[in-house]
Amino acid sequence: MIRWEKDIIRQLERVKSNLSKTHDFDFYLYFPTPYEAKQASIELLLEGLTCEIKPGATDNNWLCLASIQLVPEAEELAQMESTFDKIARAHHGEYDGWESNIHRNDAIIQGRLRV
Questions:
Q1: What is the DSSP string of 41-89?
Q2: What is the distance between the alpha carbons of residues 100 and 106, in angstroms, rounded to a whole number?
Q3: pLDDT tens per residue across span 79-95
Q4: Residue ranges per structural domain of the chain
Q5: What distance lies between CA 21 and its chain's CA centroid?
Q6: Which residues contact 111 (CB under 8 A, 6 or more apart)?
Q7: What's the fold here for domain 4-12+23-104?
């Protein structure tokens, strides 16, 4: 099994994103109620992420979209994985993937990588 943080780096390498540049990451966490999503967002804010809460794609969940800008490094991403797992479990939710912009040379590609 590929570790989560190595998969992020592998996916960014696959699309030839410049890993030495700061990337805008969005992380998708889903919770059963808006209250649980709000409680999770408070913890994520304390970890340095910004959060947006909105209804999920289905009527039975709420999205907590957590965002951060960082240079993708395995150690920091591993710590984030642990944080997402802990917070999601504590609030009866689940982590459901990530999205990032793509850097090539000095340009940011318009599309985003969603996994």
A1: HHHHHHTT-EEEEEE-SSTT-EEEEEEEEE---HHHHHHHHHHHHHHHH
A2: 16
A3: 888 899 899 999 999 99
A4: 4-12+23-104
A5: 17
A6: 102
A7: Alpha-Beta Plaits (3.30.70)
